[in-house]
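User: Please fill in residues for this 433-position structure.
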């Protein structure tokens, strides 16, 4: 039996961030991770000298970037050129990404070019929170007239959110993500695994303890108060605070009578987003100029991350492709479609192939801000004193990893703000104490 101030369940980016901020506040903290390594979905694997993330990952200038900088992480890598192609009717066309490509793209009429440029200008300055209550479709149809400008925006907003349909995502958060993307995405040297190593080191330096390969099986919350964390291997840890940095469905399994808490609402309203991910390492690029493409009438994206990041020890080019999936994905068809896009961009790639990785259905996020959401999850589970949630799904308007870091910090801030008298008032209000 051990006793600590804070137990974090899950050692992904949300869990690591929460642990660091708890330790910085002087709390004795333990992270418990069921896998034998930390990182969750942000790990990287080295295959035949090439570094592969679990699908294409880029870091935008949002909450996560600011948090990692605040923590002193080095974040080695570069911002790639934004020069891009659009896949339309099975052909490649230059997309407007700078003045030259705007004027030369065959996709847009003169009127379309003007509308595209003026919309991007407006977007770069807009406060997008005003669009939190309308869908992407409503925003596009209310703000853009030219059909091809609409198509291109749908494609950019899909890439920003990973969500296929424009009717569900709230427009505000995705427009903000697009704004951040337009400031330049960062591709990390050696993949996101380096980020995890840096977070791990930072946490260890602050005294956080890690238990890996140990699965949490339940949280003891007698009388509506967090008391103990129980693990499958028999480990028991007494604690005042638990941060559930897992998916909403795992969170609900770990908490007795969770169906009577907000965890139930958060799980019921959650909409999962998945993608098929194909990554290839090639000896050389058959078409060196064709490195980045958005699907316009296909829900795909291709990016050669090696054009900006160090991703292989021997100069191999690491290309990531994503197929944004809808409700009923078909892994074989998705692979065929992704290979088709690679044929279009890099004809003859099979002869240059060193190694490939295909992940047919990755969960990009367990939930996001969408039009059917009743409430934003967390930070506190109001019915149980000392219980918190964090993770990309606990978004209050942030997207993907920004939601993971922001929710983790919200949990710690809330925990600290309720210490002493105020905490009693918070829970009395909810009828627990
Ligand atoms: C294909 C793909 C592409 C992406 N691209 C981007 C991108 O370009 N930009 C971006 O910002 N984000 C991107 N993301 C999202 C980003 O990877 C996630 O937001 C982030 O990694 C989520 O971190 P997390 O800590 O919330 O969850 P996770 O990484 O899933 O961590 C949860 C952890 O909890 C552990 N766990 C679960 N149950 C238990 C238990 N009972 N006991 C102990 N441990 C437990 C799990 O093993 C896991 O390690 C992408 C994701 C995918 C899949």
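Assistant: Residues filled in for all 433 positions:
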């Amino acid at each position: 039996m051990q006793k600590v101030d804070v137990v974090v369940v899950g050692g992904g980016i949300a869990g690591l961030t929460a642990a660091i901020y708890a330790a910085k506040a002087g709390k004795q903290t333990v992270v418990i991770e069921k896998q034998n390594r930390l990182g969750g979905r942000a790990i990287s694997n080295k295959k035949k000298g090439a570094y592969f993330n679990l699908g294409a990952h880029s870091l935008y200038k949002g909450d996560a970037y600011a948090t990692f900088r605040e923590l002193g992480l080095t974040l080695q890598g570069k911002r790639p050129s934004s020069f891009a192609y659009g896949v339309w009717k099975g052909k490649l066309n230059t997309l407007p990404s700078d003045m030259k490509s705007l004027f030369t793209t065959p996709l847009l009429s003169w009127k379309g070019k003007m509308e595209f440029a003026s919309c991007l200008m407006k977007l770069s300055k807009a406060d997008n929170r005003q669009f939190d209550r309308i869908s992407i479709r409503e925003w596009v149809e209310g703000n853009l007239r030219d059909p091809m400008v609409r198509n291109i925006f749908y494609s950019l907003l899909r890439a920003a959110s990973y969500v296929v349909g424009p009717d569900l995502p709230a427009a505000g958060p995705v427009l903000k993500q697009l704004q951040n993307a337009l400031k330049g995405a960062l591709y990390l040297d050696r993949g996101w695994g380096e980020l995890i190593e840096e977070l791990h080191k930072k946490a260890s330096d602050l005294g956080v303890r890690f238990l890996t390969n140990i699965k949490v099986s339940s949280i003891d919350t007698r009388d509506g108060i967090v008391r103990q964390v129980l693990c499958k291997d028999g480990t028991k840890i007494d604690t005042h605070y638990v941060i559930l940095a897992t998916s909403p469905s795992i969170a609900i399994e770990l908490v007795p009578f969770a169906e009577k808490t907000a965890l139930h609402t958060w799980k019921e309203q959650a909409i999962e987003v998945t993608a098929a991910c194909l990554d290839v390492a090639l000896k050389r690029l058959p078409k060196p100029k064709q490195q980045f493409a958005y699907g316009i009438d296909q829900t795909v994206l291709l990016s050669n991350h090696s054009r900006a990041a160090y991703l292989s020890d021997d100069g191999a080019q690491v290309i990531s492709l994503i197929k944004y999936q809808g409700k009923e994905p078909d892994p074989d068809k998705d692979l065929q479609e992704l290979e088709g896009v690679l044929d279009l961009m890099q004809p003859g790639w099979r002869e240059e192939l060193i190694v490939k990785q295909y992940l047919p259905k990755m969960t990009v996020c367990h939930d996001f801000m969408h039009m059917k959401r009743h409430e934003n999850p967390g930070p506190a589970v109001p019915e149980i004193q000392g219980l918190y949630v964090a993770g990309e799904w606990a978004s209050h308007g942030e997207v993907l990893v920004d939601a993971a870091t922001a929710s983790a910090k919200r949990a710690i801030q809330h925990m600290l703000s309720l210490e002493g008298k105020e905490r009693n008032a918070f829970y009395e209000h909810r009828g627990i104490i």
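For context: The pocket of flavin-adenine dinucleotide is lined by residues 9-15, 32-35, 40-42, 54-58, 215-216, 245-246, 250, 275, 277, 362, 364, 391-392, 400-401, 404 (CB under 6 Å).
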